Amino acid sequence: VQLQASGGGLVQPGGSLRLSCAAASGRTFNDYTMGWFRQPPGKERESVAIIGNRGSTYYADSMKGRVTISRDNAKYTMYLQMNNLKPEDTAVYFCAAAPPGTAWAKGFWGQGTLVTVSS
Fold it and tell me: What pLDDT, on the 0 to 100 scale, is given for residue 47?
């Protein structure tokens, strides 16, 4: 599964962005658990939000209440709506896909999209 993340950019504190993650092949997209991760400058990669193949969601505490993860299986695309962004949200955001129960390290990863929150 090839994944293409997009939608990053420069936004002011308090602003919003919507990230997209498009799968090049839809054949198995609908079966996979999908997730958004981020890597702030100088820090390790961390999870942001996960969505199961049936739509169940999980949010990490770091952005809970400010982000919404969703997926459109007909378009083989996953989204991350981010609101009330803070400077500490600055990071490269990655999308990933993995079969249910499979470790993310063994899944498929997109190339990342940079989000910069700054005035």
Answer: 96
